[in-house]
Design goal:
There is one protein chain. This protein is an alpha/beta fold. The protein has a single domain, classed as Amidase signature (AS) domain (Amidase signature (AS) enzymes, Alpha-Beta Complex). Helices cover 39% and strands 13% of the residues. The protein contains 15 helices and 11 strands. Strands 1-3-2-4-6-5-10-11-9-7-8 form an 11-stranded mixed sheet, with helices on both faces. It is globular.
Length: 473
């Protein structure tokens, strides 16, 4: 029989109970489906719920485990995916009415690998349209944050964060171009990893910006993220950008020491733009790492202040190219903000886009150069806690339009820089505001150093309890 709060146990804890026979995959799946029925009418985290398929998969997992064919820590664990990835028998809409009838006939590579590990898929999760982050009218309803229903769960992986935080699934998959896993993880009190670019296959996944996109896991702990990453990572011939070679032992390296680790506190993620509670929580998180033996110094990347301009020129132009045919044929079916951004991207001169790509390379190299001095770079993930969902207002002037455009990405400027470097980056819970809203701590490592990054996060979470909290729904 399941414990009363089994839905908020970590994947690792649930997996141990399932392996011991103390928890039934079928019962756990049913419990999550019941919670989706009870709570998602307020949260709007799911776009599609695959009830019958999930129960059938859970029953198969239960029978396999009972017959001695236990596959590992994901066997029988219910998860869900951002509505960006092919999940057989489910629509892959990219959060858009343009692709409402786009039914996936097979699985994205990372979905197939999770299924092979025994995971049970509950359905697809809400996202901003084509993951651009400024959607006014969502495919269903506006996703809500379970820590405060008047607040945003962040974007674009909105449903991916809200669902796990609310105890509607054990873990989820999100997508991150400039911060779309890390931002929602911070706002919802989760651990969310943007893996190194090329570590995970992107086959079967809707693109935003081909040169920066990656999928990644969102869960309640660094250990859970490592479990999911272990199952998904590795070369895929269907995606020639994936890195060849052996997959690191992410789980095996979790329990190593961080004694002597060089930690750089990034000035641009700890400056005066960070609200008091967020900066204080990040400062305290740095102190925890120092107490565990890390050596701390302050570092700076001055060029980061220009990142938001580079991000817009690269991402919007690449997105416009990807959606060009649909934009020409079904313009009015796009959300207003999406089509305006895509039209701007389509109108950017090739010379300007080329300059933006050169600037992106410069920003990325500036980040990578920093890892010659330190092992891990840290700071506050966001300026503060999740903001209240704004009411759409008509823009009255050119100046206001420019301010809206730049402010949309200003908060994620630093997180975007790590995306431009192809680095491994993560947000973990590090505290709460006096009102009880989660705050995130951002950590990053050089490309393909994901194992060390997860080891640091696991060490932090062994010494703190921020990641064990969940909203009272």
């Amino acid at each position: 029989m399941a414990e009363p709060q089994v839905e908020f146990l970590t994947i690792a804890e649930q997996g141990r109970l399932i392996q011991e026979g103390a928890l039934s995959p079928l019962e756990l799946t049913q419990r999550y489906l019941d919670r989706i029925d009870q709570l998602d009418g307020k949260l709007h985290a799911f776009n599609t719920v695959l009830r019958d398929q999930a129960l059938a998969a859970a029953e198969r997992a239960e029978q396999e485990i009972a017959s001695g064919r236990y596959r590992g820590p994901l066997h029988g664990i219910p998860i869900a995916v951002k509505d960006q990835m092919d999940l057989a028998e489910a629509p892959n809409t990219g959060g858009s009415r343009v692709y409402r009838d786009n039914l996936a006939t097979g699985d994205a590579t990372i979905v197939a690998r999770l299924k092979e590990a025994g995971a049970v898929f509950l359905g697809t999760l809400a996202t901003h349209e084509f993951h651009m982050g400024t959607t006014q009218r969502f495919l269903t309803e506006t996703p809500r944050n379970p820590w405060g229903l008047d607040r945003t769960p962040g974007g674009s992986s909105a449903g991916s964060a809200s669902s796990v935080a609310a105890g509607l699934c054990s873990g989820s998959l999100g997508g991150d171009t400039g911060g779309s896993i890390r931002g929602p993880a911070s706002f919802c009190g989760l651990t969310g990893l943007r893996p190194s670019w090329s570590l995970l296959s992107r086959h079967g996944i809707f693109s935003l910006a081909w040169s920066m996109d990656t999928a990644g896991p969102m869960a309640r702990s660094a250990e859970d993220v490592a479990i999911m990453l272990q199952a998904m990572a590795g070369y895929d011939y269907k995606d020639p950008t994936t890195a060849p070679g052996p997959v690191p032992d992410f789980l095996g390296e979790l329990d190593g020491s961080i004694q002597g680790l060089r930690v750089g506190v990034l000035e641009q993620m700890m400056d005066d733009s960070i609200e008091g509670s967020a900066k204080e929580a990040a400062d305290q998180a740095v102190q925890v790492l120092k107490e565990q033996g890390a050596r701390v110094e302050h570092v700076s990347i001055p060029i980061l202040k220009e990142t938001r301009h580079v991000h817009t020129a690269v991402v919007d132009a690449e997105a416009a190219s990807y959606h060009r045919k649909a934009l020409r044929g079904r313009y009015q079916d796009f959300d207003y903000n999406t089509r305006v951004r895509l039209m701007v991207g389509a109108a950017l001169p090739a010379g300007l886009h080329t300059l933006a790509l050169r600037a992106k390379a410069l920003v990325g190299q500036s980040v990578i150069d920093l890892f010659d001095k330190v092992d891990i770079v840290v700071g506050a993930t966001n300026r503060g806690p999740a903001p209240v969902i704004p009411r759409p207002e008509i823009i009255q002037s050119k100046a206001e339009a420019a301010d809206r455009l730049w402010s949309a990405t200003r908060g994620g400027g630093a997180t975007t820089a790590f995306s431009m470097a192809g680095a491994s980056a993560i947000s973990i819970p590090c505290g709460y505001t006096p009102e009880g809203l989660p705050l995130g701590f951002h950590l990053a490592a050089r490309p393909m150093d994901d194992a060390r990054l997860l080891r640091v996060c696991h060490a932090f979470q062994q010494a703190t309890a921020w990641h064990t909290r969940h909203p009272d729904l």
